[in-house]
Write a structure and sequence with these properties.
The protein has ten helices and 15 strands. It is an alpha/beta fold. Its EC number is 5.1.3.2.
Length: 322
């Protein structure tokens, strides 16, 4: 009995693999390495190099490793880029999920934890979202994640698939010194690269309706996130009923200026961020409540903001020495 982690060589997926092992589950990784890194897969963990669009590979992997459940992390995750590449985004995130569910149904695999996104909410009317907040995604990425949730829901009705979807905003930090965020689009690696290049990071707008004038968002530590994925898998294995979706959120968030202050402290590189114009469409504040996940999935914010920064910085320096 084992759990397949699609995208298990990626930043989030590799942490999920370790969390599954920590819960006594046996992870198997499938990843096409389009953004994942092969060395992120621990020694001894089976690894299938390929795409979730390959139904035959999915079936072989399930058969060869006795897969009984799936944590579905694989996908095209860049919301901004998805606007320029909608067809690619839908192929990877919608067609890919449908292929995965088809392979699971063919092989009698009846449980899945889906890595969704708070992007399903778009820009809500409220500054704190709960699971029932209306869904108004504003990018092909957000739309594709919502469709993924619908696919799970409908397959649950049709075939008894047991499932839950986990929604979250900004994932940061590192739970292991050899795992780092290599995304060219995420805030932490962008700031780190600017500092390493001797450039000054910038803040887009400082006149928002927030305590310090900069946008407030949820930032959650990747290791905390991974724990809740693994707990969800274990509970599905035990036959427990879970909510169809959970927010993994802080409930209060942090501002961009607070992030920059923590960056200066955590890296030891003093800087005063440049202030750039606002970006169109950025709301003042969006955070998510995580009360349901705290009740059911052992969700909690175990790391301070400074710990998020320092863990990410140490992993970044270990990967590419400054």
């Amino acid at each position: 009995m084992s759990w397949l982690v699609t995208g298990g060589a990626g930043y989030i997926g590799s942490h999920v693999v370790r969390a599954l092992a920590g819960e006594g589950l046996e992870p198997v990784v499938l990843d096409d390495l389009s953004s994942g890194i092969a060395s992120f897969v621990p020694e001894g963990v089976p690894f299938a190099n390929g795409t979730i669009l390959d139904g035959d590979l999915l079936r072989r992997t399930i058969d060869e490793h006795g897969v009984t459940g799936v944590v579905h992390v694989a996908g095209f995750k860049y919301a901004g880029v998805s606007v320029q590449r909608p067809l690619h985004t839908y192929e990877q995130n919608v067609t890919g999920t449908a292929r995965l569910l088809e392979a699971m149904a063919d092989r009698g695999v009846d449980r899945i934890v889906f890595s969704s996104s708070a992007a399903v909410y778009g820009t809500p009317d409220t500054d704190t979202v709960i699971e029932g907040t209306p869904k108004n995604p504003e990018s092909p990425y957000g739309e594709s994640k919502l469709i993924g949730e619908w696919l799970l829901r409908d397959q649950g009705r049709a075939a008894g698939l047991r499932h839950t979807s986990l929604r979250y905003f900004n994932v940061v930090g590192s739970g292991e010194p050899d795992l780092y965020d290599a995304s060219p689009h995420n805030l932490f690696p962008l700031v780190f690269q600017a500092l390493l290049d001797g450039k000054t990071p910038r803040i887009n707008g400082d006149d928002y309706d927030t305590p310090d004038g900069t946008c407030v968002r949820d930032y959650v530590h990747v290791a905390d996130l991974a724990i809740s994925h693994a707990v969800a898998a274990r509970k599905l294995d035990a036959g427990e009923t879970l909510e169809s979706a959970y927010n993994l959120g802080s409930g209060d968030g942090v501002s961009v200026r607070q992030i920059m202050d923590a960056m200066a402290e955590g890296t030891g590189i003093a800087f005063t961020p440049e202030i750039a114009p606002r970006r169109p469409g950025d709301p003042d504040r969006i955070v998510a409540k995580g009360e349901l996940a705290a009740r059911d999935l052992d969700w909690e914010m175990r790391h301070t903001l400074l710990e998020m920064v320092t863990s990410a910085w140490e992993a970044r320096k270990a990967a590419v020495p400054a």
